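Quick review question:
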């Protein structure tokens, strides 16, 4: 009887403690699908009409939880899954939670994050690359920009006034074996080669009420198992891909203006350097109608294979959660460049492209 009473008391105490510190868990997501038409997708100048895997924003769903520990401390997690709405398949190399999967501890001194998470390059472009995740956006010219996430990573983000600063370090940046740019089979965490598949990034950012500037550095190393990348593949830990970005934005009433630069250095069997510059503007014509546009210039140093892309979009909000949109793009390829408006349809060498898309987006 005495043992049963003690057990009952301990169980009750544990239950009370759990109930007092219960986590708040939120289900969130976004579904976005369009129909697009793109010209000159090959050397024969054929056109394609399709449902793309990405539209104005990538579709996703996820769970976010927090627990208040008191005295300014919070614990939490984020599990976020990306998927293609046209077929229902998982994105990010087929990962279940390919967009984010991490646990975190928030303190008065900053936030510590453990698991799959964004590179600091992502946070540096948030306020300036206005059409970045769009069907016709910066990810079409540099696929890494649409996939700047790291497996096996430790991250820290701090804030002091308007300043935000952070860094991440990955022990093995990419564990998936298939799925294109989001999966290069560079799991790393090797005791033999301690540089293989490692990655580190750093961020310094300042946001004022009506303007902001940001800079970030992102460097990832290769490994012997890398399966994606062609001649510039990082199939040795002696090879690396590094990007530096500087960007800024200014808000003037309902008008948002922004500019930025992303410099890339690839050290591989065919080493090269590339630059991307962009300028964007967004304006709310009415509370329901928002228009924005962006110009990208992507240049390969010591080469005529350069690309310029012009994108415009109009979004009409039917409610706080639902919107319809119409977008158009025009791309010019110089030399033998084969960049495409959506980064997936292909393009004939040196051919220009025109693309249009219309779709529907809903958030929850």
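Suggested answer, residue by residue:
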């Amino acid at each position: 009887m005495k043992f049963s009473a003690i057990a009952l008391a301990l169980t009750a105490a544990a239950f009370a403690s759990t109930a007092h510190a219960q986590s708040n868990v939120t289900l969130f997501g976004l579904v976005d699908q369009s129909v697009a038409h793109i010209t000159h997708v090959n050397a024969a100048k054929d056109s394609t009409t399709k449902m793309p895997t990405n539209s104005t924003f990538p579709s996703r769903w996820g769970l976010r939880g927090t627990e208040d520990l008191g005295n300014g401390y919070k614990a939490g997690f984020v599990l976020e899954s990306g998927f293609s709405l046209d077929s229902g398949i998982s994105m990010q190399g087929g990962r279940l939670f390919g967009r984010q999967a991490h646990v975190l501890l928030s303190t008065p001194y900053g936030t510590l994050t453990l698991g799959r998470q964004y590179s600091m390059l992502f946070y540096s472009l948030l306020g300036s690359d206005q059409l970045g995740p769009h069907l016709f956006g910066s990810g079409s010219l540099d696929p890494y920009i649409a996939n700047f996430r790291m497996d096996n990573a430790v991250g820290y983000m701090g804030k002091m006034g308007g300043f935000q600063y952070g860094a991440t370090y990955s022990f093995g940046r990419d564990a998936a074996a298939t799925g294109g740019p989001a999966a290069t089979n560079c799991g790393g965490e090797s005791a033999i080669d301690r540089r293989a598949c490692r990655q580190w990034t750093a961020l310094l950012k300042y946001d004022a009420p009506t303007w902001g500037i940001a800079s970030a550095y992102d460097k990832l190393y290769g490994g012997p198992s890398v399966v994606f990348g062609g001649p510039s593949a990082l199939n040795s830990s002696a090879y690396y891909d590094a990007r530096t970005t500087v960007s800024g934005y200014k808000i003037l009433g309902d008008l948002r203006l922004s500019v930025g630069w992303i410099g890339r250095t690839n050290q591989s069997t065919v080493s090269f350097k590339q630059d991307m510059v962009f300028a964007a503007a967004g304006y709310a014509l009415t509370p329901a109608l928002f228009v924005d546009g962006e110009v990208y210039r992507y240049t390969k140093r010591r080469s005529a294979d350069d690309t310029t892309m012009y994108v415009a979009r109009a979004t009409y909000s039917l409610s706080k959660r639902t919107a319809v949109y119409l977008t158009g793009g025009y791309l010019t390829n110089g030399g033998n460049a084969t960049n495409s408006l959506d980064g997936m349809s292909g393009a004939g060498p040196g051919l220009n492209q025109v693309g249009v898309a219309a779709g529907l987006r809903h958030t929850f």
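Why it works: The first strand starts at residue 24 and ends at 38. The longest helix spans residues 2-20.
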